[in-house]
Amino acid sequence: MTDGDIKTMKLYSRVDRVYAELRNAGIGDDDPVPLDVLCRFDQYHYRGTDAVEEGIARLALRPHHRVLDVGSGLGGPARYIASRAGCAVTALELQEDVHEVASRLTRRCGLAHLVRHRQGNVLDEPAEPGGFDALFAWLSFLHIPERGRLYRRCFEALRPGGAMYVEDYFERGTLTGEERDTLAVKVYSRDLPRLDDLYRDLDRAGLAEVEIEDVTESWTDHVAERARAYRAGRAREIALHGEEVFAGLDDFYSTIARLFRAGNLGGMRLVARKP
Ligand SMILES: C[S@@+](CC[C@H](N)C(=O)[O-])C[C@H]1O[C@@H](n2cnc3c(N)ncnc32)[C@H](O)[C@@H]1O
């Protein structure tokens, strides 16, 4: 996988648009950024910081826990975890431009002492094997079809007794050929697992106490509302980011809403532990 391929997903074009949002909120390019303002723009998953709160509670994070956030995007969940739970967080992100913006935002939030950004691929050898008490991944595994290796890397990153929390897509019905093509190009997502595949892959990687919850229903509502609200804000979006960004994201959000509505794409929340 290269950075270039993943850019077929429009969410990842012009990632510096977060700076335009901050300027629009009255925050200049070199100003400190209050986390509560930034949180409106830096969460690239569903249900924003509510979802992160649920993850923090589910893994019962404490300040001494060392946390790895896989596919950390702009660093939204990593900064929120550091600030709410007081943990040191390593934010691992594949894409260079996303990583750069994320690192800068963390410095501007005054959280660089707790959040360390690393650019890299989770499929590579872990830099700190056994170094983490908790691992999170919000909507990053959908980009990684090599699940055997992926879960093995998660296993290796955790200390014995450490836990992982993942929110991601799965194949709930049977995706049509057209749906598969759309996911491959517009979401950079191939070979999504069925729930049975997930249980088997996690077991093979040595992960235990697996619990998977189907959250498709609430995600279907969420992505429908996101697509509706984005289109309703067309004038604002074009004024702030331009026609091209609006058209790309409008297509992206409405595509996701359509895929969930059709019923073959599912959403799940997974917790597992390294024995
Ligand atoms: C939908 S975004 C979610 C970002 C973040 N988790 C959040 O919720 O705000 C998925 C992220 O995973 C990253 N990613 C995809 N494949 C990766 C890999 N193999 N290693 C590390 N990061 C990866 C992408 O570059 C992207 O930034």
Quick tags:
275 residues; alpha/beta; Rossmann fold; seven-stranded mixed β-sheet; 12 helices; 19% strand; globular; binds S-adenosylmethionine
What does this structure look like?
The protein has one domain: Rossmann fold (3-Layer(aba) Sandwich), CATH 3.40.50. Strand 4 (132-138), helix 7 and strand 5 (158-171) form a beta-alpha-beta unit. By secondary structure, it is of the alpha/beta class. It has a 7-stranded mixed sheet with strand order 3-2-1-4-5-7-6, with helices on both faces. The radius of gyration is 18 Å and the shape is globular. The protein has helices at residues 3-6, 17-24, 35-38, 48-58, 76-85, 96-108, 147-157, 177-186, 195-204, 216-232, 234-241, 243-262; strands at 66-70, 88-93, 115-119, 132-138, 158-171, 208-214, 265-273. It is built from 12 helices and 7 strands. The structure holds S-adenosylmethionine. S-adenosylmethionine binds next to helix 5 and strand 2.
Overall radius of gyration: 18 Å
Q: What portion of residues belong to β-strands?
A: 15-25%
Following the backbone from N to C, one meets helices and strands in this order, namely HHHHEHEHEEHEHHEHHHE
Runs in which pLDDT lies below 50 for 5 or more consecutive residues are none
Gross morphology: globular
Instruction: Provide mean pLDDT, rounded.
Output: 96
What is the highest CATH level, the class?
Alpha Beta
Number of helices: 12
Tell me the name of the CATH homologous superfamily: Vaccinia Virus protein VP39
CATH topology title: Rossmann fold
CATH-level-2 architecture: 3-Layer(aba) Sandwich
Give every kind of bound small molecule, once each: S-adenosylmethionine
Q: Identify the strand order in the major beta sheet.
A: 3-2-1-4-5-7-6
Number of domains: 1
Percent in helix: 40-55%
Structural class, by secondary structure, is alpha/beta
The description of the largest β-sheet is: 7 strands, mixed
User: Kindly, what is the distance between the CA atoms of the first and last residues, rounded to a whole number of angstroms?
Assistant: 31 Å
The number of E-state strands comes to 7
